[in-house]
Amino acid sequence: MAQDYYALLGVSRSATPEEMKKAYRKLARQLHPDVNDAPDAADRFKEVTTAYEVLSDPQKRAVYDRGGNPLGGGGGAGGFGGGAGFSFDDIMDAFFGGGGSSSRGPRSRVQRGQDALLRLQVDLAEAAFGVTREIKVDTAVVCERCSGSGAEDDSATVTCGTCHGHGEVQQVQRTPLGSVRTARPCPTCHGFGTVIQDPCHECHGDGRVRSRRSITVSIPAGVDQGTRIQLAGEGEVGPGGGPAGDLYIEVEVARHPVFTRKGDQLRCQVTLPMTAAALGTHVDLPTLEADLVDEDGPEVVGLEVPAGIQSGETLTLRGQGVPRLRGPGRGDLVVEIVVQTPDELDDAQRDLLKQLAALRDEERPEAQLGSTHRGSVFGRIKDAFR
């Protein structure tokens, strides 16, 4: 004997057929040319395939053990040549976990339902402080007539006569590589293994019907645009009355006329006349709580504007922003000041401004290049030269 087939498979001479099959599967996965690009992978794959072809056939194995030629000059190395104990299914088993000839069995009529997504628009205040909404959902529910079975009565379901309850039918084809067995879902029972002779008159065998129902949704405080809230088991009921999927509520926050939001921070603009910006003032700002009818919080919050504030500067009110979704406390309210210059003056106002310009030596002011904003780069350079 030129080769030791047992050594090629890595099994003992007393190995059982199952042990040899397991060893061959392992080697086939390692040596197949499609997954192994080593120069000798193809030759080694042919050798172990020939070894398994011989040892998996009881008659060829007996001839080999007596020292004879088990291939009889016919099947050559790697021929997959139709031995009684070897077929192309064994290679398929090696790569697909035993799927070549084994049956997957019938699939259950009872399956989990699909998840559903629903978009819900809320106001900015509702997103900030939370809200409870009742929504209407068109979804699949269990058929009350058949309780999800899909049959009009208990005796209406019988074993499929085409697949005999297996849920699939198999077909064997002869190829140059040997016999190839394929399986596909039974066309009669669609893979269930049983046939409903008298389907439910309400759901027509599906076990579920479409219906509109009400769901109460609690939106937690601090949610933002695009936040998704999961409602477990509130999605569609599955075929055959199977468990329901989940319902996801995606929050859409409507635009607010005053406030904009960035994370847990609120921002707004306050426009002041030139005189108020120069002299300083007090401003009462509306709060976000004022948008909620049942909210006990303050409707306004005071803002002290210091004298000499410039347009574009910001003032911060701590703890007047959006409540944090995960964690205690609230963000801040950032107020941007916009100084408005009067565009229409009467004679008296014009005279007063001329007097102010003379007192401040600003009758013929020199234009300044760059930003004069406090804390800017130009301002710091100017201060350094001073």
Automatic annotation (TrEMBL):
Protein name: Chaperone protein DnaJ
Family annotation (HAMAP family): DnaJ (MF_01152)
CR-type domain mapped to chain residues: 130-212
Originating organism: Aeromicrobium erythreum
List of residues binding Zn(2+) 2: 160, 163, 186, 189
Any one GO BP annotation for this protein: DNA replication
Domain description: The J domain is necessary and sufficient to stimulate DnaK ATPase activity. Zinc center 1 plays an important role in the autonomous, DnaK-independent chaperone activity of DnaJ. Zinc center 2 is essential for interaction with DnaK and for DnaJ activity.
Zn-finger (CR-type) residues: 130-212
Family per similarity comment: Belongs to the DnaJ family.
Domain J: 4-68
Cofactor, how bound (note): Binds 2 Zn(2+) ions per monomer.
SUPFAM superfamilies xref list: Chaperone J-domain (SSF46565), DnaJ/Hsp40 cysteine-rich domain (SSF57938), HSP40/DnaJ peptide-binding domain (SSF49493)
Subcellular location: Cytoplasm
